[in-house]
Structure formats: C-alpha cells, structure tokens
Specification:
Structural class: alpha+beta
Radius of gyration: 13 Å
CATH architecture: 2-Layer Sandwich
Order of helices and strands: HEHHEEEE
Number of strands: 5
CATH topology: YaeB-like fold
Helix content: 25-40%
Shape: globular
Distance between the termini: 30 Å
Strand content: 25-35%
Number of helices: 3
Number of domains: 1
C-alpha cells in the first residue's frame, strides 16, 4: 500500500510520459488518452512489481479506464513526478481473462 501511495503522491505533483509511452498511447488502432492514464493511476491496482528495474522501482498497474476498457500502465514514482514508462490495451493473446495475469508461454 505504501508504494501505491507513493505513485499517487508523485502523480499529484506531475506526470511525465516517456517517448515510448507516447508512441504506445498514440497507436493507430487504440489511442489511450491522458485522462485514461490518470484514471488507472488513481483507481487501478498493482499487478506486477518491479523492484530491481533499471529505471528504479516501478510497477504495472491495471485498471478500467473512463472509456470502460482495460488499460495497463507501467510507471515509476520519482521525488518530483510520476514517470509513465508505457501504457497499452492488454490483449487476451498475452493475458488471461481479467488482464491481471500473463498467459504461460
């Protein structure tokens, strides 16, 4: 819960999107808005935790956006901002029903 709070606190200060995140969010097939990202940050749940990520402690959030669709957001809270590393609409090819667990390879 503490890490979850650090994500929300960082997001209140500022949200910064990596170029990769913006590329994914602006996919021709499925555009993801900043409002959808904010909805997942505020209401979503951590489904994977990356303690040893090269960008610092980060995680994968899952949430249902205001557009009523599943969205995954990988983010890393920093002292003065929340870094959005990537965001995408999960598919059933890679995720089990509910989009919270990866399918076995």
């Amino acid at each position: 819960m503490e890490f979850r709070n650090s994500i929300r606190q960082a997001a209140k200060k500022k949200i910064i999107y990596t170029i990769h995140a913006l590329d994914e969010m602006n996919s021709e097939e499925k555009v993801i808005t900043t409002e959808e990202i904010r909805c997942v940050i505020l209401n979503g749940e951590i489904i994977e935790d990356y303690l040893d990520d090269k960008r610092g402690h980060s995680c994968l959030l899952f949430g249902i956006s205001g557009e009523d669709r599943p969205v995954h957001v990988v983010c890393a809270p920093k002292k003065d901002y929340l870094a959005i590393i990537t965001a995408y609409i999960p598919s059933l090819e890679k995720w089990e029903i509910g989009f919270k667990r990866r399918r076995p390879k």
